[in-house]
Specification:
heterodimer; A: mainly alpha; two-stranded antiparallel sheet; about 0% strand; B: mainly alpha; two-stranded antiparallel ribbon; 13 helices; about 80% helix
Chain lengths: ~280, ~280
């Protein structure tokens, strides 16, 4: 018997609708669970006090500081490198074998899973360069990990700046570098910022690459040679070692909220750029 | 142009070239250091005994990671079985059925959810999925099935976002041509839109696989980490990534080298997957 195509059409429409809402539903439920279970355990004291008894009691203050230090320092290292690479690829060369090789390198870096960054950072920075489990080892490892994201988004942002703007600048006698710094980069800045914010989001949620380079000391780090623990690592240890479910949910909530907030800012900046150019 | 500015331009260009080369340098360093640490064991113990060996007892001279290779592929395949149909349906719904306003809300919402850290997925898997599997299907609950479910959900945003982009980039005229021939909406999607977007959809699956096979912390939490090939979907397993992360903190000597050998195998698999994904994306454009 031939199935009526109209029936199939209707059937598939309903099936696809159901699947789509099921999928979105799962993801919404994940956030909802974290929110409901975590919110009761969060207060200012949790954020600003030190953990006691491995995190069973007290707050998560040192892990917040550790996370902020890691994120800010990685961005400070990765931004000039990444934006510089993007400027080089878009403004200073034509497409050639050389740029293809560099792009291949960037794409390959983007595909390497974080545990291999952890493995590399551990053997190279922690052991061979004798930096030990320290914020510095973590920062350098993470810098390499987020570099591809920053390069790609910066490249897209720079490419989106209209060609005419550059021609006007050249016609006024500006050099290439003057054109890049005074004309191209200011126009591309919001797009670049989006890439930076997305990278910060990734750093905040990262565990595998961080735990083997930065370690997991719960003390408040006072220098970049100290070991430290990020919120994500703290959450992992709380959950895996079953130290405290309440504290784990509370940490997860702060972690997820901060990442969502960072990503929302990133998308807000991006949507502003898109509406400006279209 | 004065001489001063041309010297300055030259310096700028040199510095930028060095910056651009840094990515290659980092890639090179990662490869070299993982290779230097991991390859001596391949020579000492033998490639075959590591890749095809069944026994992992690194303190007693056995470095077989065959069960882990199989396990890594099994969870990745499992994740794809769960994530690919759901993700593709969601992408088709978003690009073909949903209204503009719903699309404007759902697309960014899904991308935001991609930022939820993997440890959170792992944790929720332990709390909610493991007990369900344990109660209804038996075993400890830490299993191939629960790991596949968690990874399948985790790769949804990747699959949806990339499939959606490739579905949307199928020209409108293709759809109109199909409707003009009297095809229904589903026939158009099934026969015209999806085949036209297939290389992008394939790339989204491969990138999803890459994410699943590289995932570590969530997998450790939920896989049970047993050192054998799972014979059943309720059996526990240990992946390549899990093996590295579980033992790196305390391993010394040959044991540590064995973890780097595991890293080499993982690196080779990942590079092959990336190459395939890039090939798919390039063919589309």
């Amino acid at each position: 018997m031939r199935i009526n195509p109209r029936f199939t059409n209707r059937f598939m429409e309903i099936l696809l609708n159901t699947q789509a809402f099921f999928t979105v539903g799962i993801l919404v439920i994940i956030v909802a669970i974290i929110l409901v279970k975590g919110i009761g355990n969060i207060n200012l004291e949790f954020i600003f006090s030190f953990p006691e008894d491995m995190g069973r009691h007290g707050g998560i203050y040192p892990t917040i500081i550790g996370t902020i230090m890691l994120a800010i320092l990685s961005i400070i290292f990765a931004t000039p490198l990444g934006v510089g690479t993007a400027i080089f690829l878009t403004e200073y060369t034509k497409e050639s074998i050389f740029t293809k090789i560099i792009r291949f390198g960037v794409e390959s870096l983007a595909g390497i899973p974080s545990i291999l960054y952890g493995l590399f950072g551990f053997i190279f920075f922690v052991i061979k360069l004798k930096m030990g489990w320290s914020i510095l080892s973590g920062v350098l490892t993470i810098t390499i990990m987020i570099l591809p994201t920053i390069i790609r988004t910066s490249e897209e942002a720079i490419k989106a700046v209209p060609k005419n703007v550059r021609f006007v600048s050249y016609s006024l006698g500006a050099t290439k570098w003057e054109t890049v710094t005074k004309v191209v980069l200011p126009s591309a800045a919001p797009g670049i910022l989006t890439g930076i914010m997305l990278s910060v989001g990734r750093v905040v949620g990262e565990t595998a690459a961080v735990i083997f380079t930065m370690g997991s000391s719960l003390r408040l780090p006072t220098s970049i040679m100290d070991s430290g623990r990020t919120m994500a690592v703290h959450f992992y240890i709380l959950a895996r070692e079953g130290i405290s479910m309440e504290k784990a949910y509370a940490t997860a909530l702060i972690l997820v909220l901060s990442i969502l907030l960072i990503n929302i800012i990133a998308y807000y900046i991006m949507s502003r750029v898109i509406s400006k150019y279209s | 142009m004065t001489k001063d500015t041309s010297i300055k331009e030259q310096i700028v260009k040199t510095v930028l070239t060095i910056f651009a080369l840094s990515s290659l340098l980092f890639l090179f360093l990662i490869f070299i250091f993982i290779l230097i640490e991991g390859s001596p064991l391949f020579i000492k113990v033998g490639l075959k005994n590591i890749i095809l060996g069944f026994k992992w007892a690194p303190t007693k001279g056995s470095f077989g990671i065959f069960p882990m290779i199989i396990s890594s592929f099994l969870v990745t395949f499992g994740a794809l079985v769960i994530g690919a149909p759901l993700g593709l349906s969601c992408a088709i719904y978003l690009s073909e059925y949903s209204g503009k306003r719903l699309k404007m809300i759902l697309k960014p919402a899904l991308e935001l959810l991609a930022g939820i850290p993997s440890v959170v997925y792992g944790f929720l898997g332990v709390i909610y999925i493991v007990p369900i599997i344990r109660n209804y299907l038996g075993g400890s609950g830490f299993s191939l099935l629960s790991t596949s479910i968690v990874l399948g959900i985790m790769i949804l945003p990747t699959i949806i976002s990339i499939s959606f982009d490739s579905l949307v980039s199928v020209p409108r005229s293709y759809r109109e041509g199909s409707y003009a021939m009297g095809a229904t909406k589903w026939q158009t999607i099934y026969k015209i839109v999806v085949p036209s977007a297939r290389s992008g959809i394939l790339a989204s699956f491969i990138l999803g696989m890459g994410r699943a096979i590289g995932e570590t912390m969530a997998v450790i939490m939920i896989a049970g980490n047993a050192l054998k090939i799972p014979m059943n979907i309720t059996d526990p397993l240990r992946t390549l990534t899990g093996n590295i992360a579980l033992e790196l903190a305390y391993a010394t000597g040959d044991h540590r080298l064995g973890l780097f050998s595991t890293g080499i195998v993982l690196l080779v698999i990942i590079m092959a997957l990336n190459y395939m994904a890039n090939f798919g994306i390039k063919r589309r454009s």
